[in-house]
Amino acid sequence: EADTLAWVYLKSGDKAKAVATMKKALSRNTPDAEMRYHAGMIAAAAGDRTSAQRHLQEALSFNSSFSLLQAPIAQKTLDSLGSRDTADTK
Question: Which element (helix H / strand E) includes 82?
Answer without folding.
Answer: none
